[in-house]
Request: fold
Amino acid sequence: MPLSADTPAPRPGRYDFWARTWIAYERRHPTTPPVIAQAFLCSGIAPSRTRLREMARLSALLLPELAPEGAETDEVLDRHVFEERAERGSGEAGLRAVLGRLAVAPLPATGADLWLVTGYAPGAFALVPRVRHALLDGVGSSAVTSLVGRMLGGSARPPGSAPAPGVPAAGDDRGTASVGGVCRAALVLADVALGVPPAARLARVPDRAPGAPVLHRWTFVRTAPLRPLLSASGASVNDVLLACLAGALRSWGRERDGRIPRGVRAMVPVTLREDADRPADGNRFVGARVLLPLREPDPLRRLAAVATRTRTVRRRSARPDVEALLRRCPDALAAWTSWRSLRPRVGSLVASNVPGPPGGLRAPGFRVDHVVPMLFLPSGHPFSVAFMDYGGEVCVGFTTYPEVGGLDRLPGWFDAAARELCEAAAPGGPVR
Reply:
């Protein structure tokens, strides 16, 4: 299980509803705790252990709450930096096997670490930072790794002192809850907690032994061919990705048991961050359910349905009143909400869209070619999916268990759904 036995609980105080929520979830589901991770697929010369220690040290500067005592010493840093060698020449399959083991490897007591994976291809390696979700959300984690990469490349300077995650900076007034805001927040919490109507269950997941590896598969979708579609439809990139996911799950269901599931609802995190927010701002999002139109055969109508639903979600969720109330939510309600919101009958799957690092990341001796998001699997869910953009492409990363069939085909079905959508919007327009 990814948390070490001596992992201390974070001290989020009354500012971080979701930190308290994740802590409660970890206690209820110790074999599937939520961990945020990305695999940075690089080419060039793999960094030395000294360089890996420097990456860990810079991360501690950005996240002082995670910094272990004596973080400047090699002995302490080495407890947060690890190396794993895939089978020589095993290619992407070997890399996926290692990532499946890393996803369930124990975390240090601080709740964060960094792995270097080599051997799967000549001149290629992967850097895999991981952090406990109770300490940081996906947007914050991506911002931290981006800043570390820019500092290593010389395009950014190390920061000064920073507040602890989840604690507002001096002068940061996030407002108080109004009567209307309280009502909106209550509706948001009620929907993700009660799950009415219930979500379709995509597949049964058998009981698994602690530490059993998960499976990761991914595909890349270039964003340039999507621009005419975005301009013509007024939809967002996230809307397009969710519509393609609906198309992929439609194909998955038809091949798996000959039917298209009805009532598939994705649990989608909606960020409450603003441009000025700090990377180490803890967890700042609210979960929302989005009905995926799997039974709609026309790809453009699927996109229109998704866009309408996500606009409603954003209008109800992205409110200072909502966040103000969530920060003051009693621990008992936070625990109950987390237990309910990630149940398979409330959300069929988790679908998270996390902004990737801007531009191409480089450091002396190597460059980052791709970034693969590694989303955790909530207890009882057959798979989860994460989207992350980087370098003109979006990586669509699926996480599942070996017992769930069909994942090998999901990336291909996603590609097919993207092609179908673009061709429907502009006949003859290639996706790749």
Observations:
- The chain has one domain: 17-159+179-425.
- The mean pLDDT is 81.
